[in-house]
Amino acid sequence: MQIGFIGTGTISAAVIEGLQSLPEAPDIVVSPRSEATSLALAARFAKVRRATSNAEVAKADIVFLGMRPMHLEEAIAGIGFGEGQIVVSMVAGFALSDIQGHWPKARACRFIPLPGVARGIGPMATYPAIPEIVKLFSPLGDLFVVADETKLNFGGLNAFMSAYYELQRALIDVGTSAGVSETDARGFVVSMLGMLAVTAQHTPAASFDRLVEEHQTKGGLNERVRTNLLATGWFDVPAAVLRETTTLNYGKLG
Ligand SMILES: NC(=O)c1ccc[n+]([C@@H]2O[C@H](COP(=O)([O-])OP(=O)(O)OC[C@H]3O[C@@H](n4cnc5c(N)ncnc54)[C@H](OP(=O)(O)O)[C@@H]3O)[C@@H](O)[C@H]2O)c1
């Protein structure tokens, strides 16, 4: 079985790195663009080969589409997928009905990985469930097979990654503004956020709502900070921004 990638950019590289970490790493063929990324992948992994054209990649059994939406039409011009092939689109907003409209004989799904797939961690979403794809990615993180296409982006949650790091940056700045060294402030914040994430991962659903209470002393500073942030409406902002931004850009299909 051969796997192809048309559009060898950031997210394709992460998916390829993850796939190459599997005990039975698949043979992969990548499109020549991006030149630097595809050359680097072929140099790093014995089972990754760089093709000379998108059409050459399109002959693979499973073909991932990994370009940005504005480059889609140009990248797939003249490309055909037929019976026995699987098309896996990672392209934001490329609706399943459009994929099926282009290549009615191939099986098709949408797949939204996040960069952690490179190290086998983090969430990914797919629709519909194609057994080969579910089997391929189940070992590489938390794969969510959603009930319908409109749920693929989880209400825009996957657009929160860089904002999370901006928040992390702001917290580190709190430390440095208080005279803590950059190294210590960064180390403290990363360790604290990591600890909170791991705690949440190990908390059963029945106890999940207790995490807030368990991480604040009554009348203590955590409680006061949270109460003050609540009073400013701070926790309502992400939902409003995510809703507005993702709906504006991708429409309801994500
Ligand atoms: N980044 C993420 O975390 C993430 C997660 C899930 C889904 N996605 C989706 O995945 C897609 C790619 O995102 P990305 O962040 O990986 O973008 P990216 O780094 O810009 O990668 C896009 C790739 O497409 C290539 N490309 C452009 N036109 C092409 C053509 N005609 N033929 C072949 N390749 C072509 C680009 O090559 P050049 O550099 O030569 O132009 C580049 O390698 C987007 O639709 C995005 O919404 C991204």
Automatic annotation (TrEMBL):
<dbReference type="InterPro" id="IPR028939">
    <property type="entry name" value="P5C_Rdtase_cat_N"/>
</dbReference>
<feature type="domain" description="Pyrroline-5-carboxylate reductase catalytic N-terminal">
    <location>
        <begin position="2"/>
        <end position="93"/>
    </location>
</feature>
<protein>
    <submittedName>
        <fullName>NAD(P)-binding domain-containing protein</fullName>
    </submittedName>
</protein>
<dbReference type="Pfam" id="PF03807">
    <property type="entry name" value="F420_oxidored"/>
</dbReference>
<dbReference type="GO" id="GO:0004735">
    <property type="term" value="F:pyrroline-5-carboxylate reductase activity"/>
</dbReference>
<dbReference type="GO" id="GO:0055129">
    <property type="term" value="P:L-proline biosynthetic process"/>
</dbReference>
<comment type="similarity">
    <text>Belongs to the pyrroline-5-carboxylate reductase family.</text>
</comment>
<dbReference type="InterPro" id="IPR036291">
    <property type="entry name" value="NAD(P)-bd_dom_sf"/>
</dbReference>
